[in-house]
């Protein structure tokens, strides 16, 4: 893991993250040169950028490797907007591989909106990073997609999250069977369903239509809240003055 010290500033992502990426590429070249990639897919933009030089360009120049920018959201530059017209064009993308160019107000084509999967409703925004044509970048991105996100980017995200989870000792995501078991064991508190739905008492249509009254005795929800407060799960301290309170967990 690395410690990011530079603050995040929109349009300057490369200055925050690229030094660590360059270091990773150089270490790979030194230790396992046979695994050096021929091209890098970058989770970010290339020339589709405020200054025409996004993180994919920055990384490509410093490593001298072909780079492709693959972004999940449209960076609105040079007159490009995620407006109704843009959304209409997205709806016209019917099948995997369908695409349309992203032409800016200047007339330059900054990238391509690509439908990378048949069942995806959101396109990818592919742009040139370094030493590759836009046509080749789109073709390569499409060929790497088993799902919406290109597999190299998707696997990097999955494996890095798994590494962090194992390193920091956090629990992993529950399996589908565990989720069903947890839902089955979860008690139902203060249900709003009628007696017939709970399997007891009269059917709902047999109930009186008169005004409802609160049942006598303490409210079970109120009791639960009092128990939570007694256990110290949530402590509310009132300060002097009207409508002033602080919540300490």
From TrEMBL:
Q: Which GO terms describe its biological process?
A: DNA repair
What keywords appear on the UniProt entry?
Answer: Cytoplasm, Endonuclease, Hydrolase, Nuclease
Any one Gene Ontology molecular-function term assigned to this protein's record: single-stranded RNA binding
Subcellular location, record wording:
Cytoplasm
**Signal peptide interval:** none
At the highest ranks, the source species' classification is: Eukaryota, Metazoa, Chordata, Craniata, Vertebrata
A single GO CC term for this protein reads:
cytoplasm
Question: Region Disordered: start and end of each range?
Answer: 160-225
**Gene3D superfamilies per the UniProt record, alphabetical:** archaeoglobus fulgidus dsm 4304 superfamily
The protein, known as: Endonuclease V
List the CDD domains: Endonuclease_V
Q: Which organism is it from?
A: Molossus molossus (Pallas' mastiff bat)
Q: Which InterPro entries match?
A: Endonuclease-V
């Amino acid at each position: 893991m690395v410690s990011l010290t530079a603050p995040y500033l929109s349009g300057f992502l490369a200055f925050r993250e690229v030094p660590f990426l360059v270091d990773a590429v150089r270490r790979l070249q030194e230790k396992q040169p046979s695994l050096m990639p021929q091209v890098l897919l970058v989770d970010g933009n290339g020339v589709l950028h405020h200054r025409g030089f996004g993180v994919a360009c920055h990384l490509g120049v410093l490593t001298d490797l072909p780079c492709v920018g693959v972004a999940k959201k449209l960076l609105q530059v040079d007159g490009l907007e995620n407006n109704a017209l843009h959304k209409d064009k997205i709806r016209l993308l019917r099948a995997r591989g369908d695409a349309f160019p992203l032409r800016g107000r200047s007339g330059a084509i900054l990238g391509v909106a690509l439908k990378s999967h048949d069942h995806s409703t959101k396109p990818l925004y592919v742009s040139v990073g370094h030493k590759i044509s836009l046509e080749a970048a789109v073709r390569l991105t499409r060929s790497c997609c088993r799902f919406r996100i290109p597999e190299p980017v998707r696997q990097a995200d999955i494996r890095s999250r798994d590494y962090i989870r194992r390193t920091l000792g956090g629990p992993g995501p529950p399996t589908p069977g565990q989720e069903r078991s947890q839902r089955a064991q979860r008690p139902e508190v203060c249900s709003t369903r009628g007696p017939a739905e709970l399997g007891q008492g009269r059917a709902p249509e047999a109930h009186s239509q008169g005004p409802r009254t609160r049942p006598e005795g303490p409210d079970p929800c109120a009791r639960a809240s009092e128990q939570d407060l007694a256990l110290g799960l949530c402590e509310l301290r009132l300060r002097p003055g009207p409508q002033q309170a602080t919540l300490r967990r």
